[in-house]
Design goal:
The chain is of the alpha+beta class. The chain has 3 helices and 3 strands, in the order H-E-E-E-H-H.
């Protein structure tokens, strides 16, 4: 088990990247289909408020979070949420920081990755 502690250096202005994406990789034992558009919309709206789906197929689903606005130098726009479909994953090559983000299975993460979940 790795017990490393990671600290962000907030004094390092080069490390700050406002507006960068949050990446979430869902790990399943078997491939799963993309959820239905209506189901995804309902869950997102329950957690983050109104959303608008701007694309949905078996590979990608994209939503605009209408009450969460990102500000850019040349304007404003709703935050976008992208869900990617299934891609192969072997469980090897996961770095220590990524492993530290596996909150739901911290005690069991290394075994899960060795077994490919």
């Amino acid at each position: 088990m790795r017990d490393e502690v990671f600290r962000q250096d907030l004094a390092d202005e080069n490390g700050l990247q406002p507006g960068g994406p949050f990446l979430i990789r869902m790990l399943f034992k078997e491939p799963v289909p993309m959820p239905e558009k209506g189901d995804m919309t309902a869950v997102m709206e329950r957690h983050i408020g109104p959303v608008e789906c701007f694309c949905h197929d078996e590979k990608t689903a994209g939503f605009a979070a209408l009450e969460h606005i990102a500000e850019f130098k040349d304007g404003k726009a709703p935050v976008q949420l992208m869900v990617m479909g299934v891609s192969p994953f072997e469980g090897e090559g996961v770095d220590a920081f990524s492993m530290s983000q596996m909150w739901d299975c911290l005690e069991d993460r290394e075994r899960r990755l060795r077994r490919r979940l």
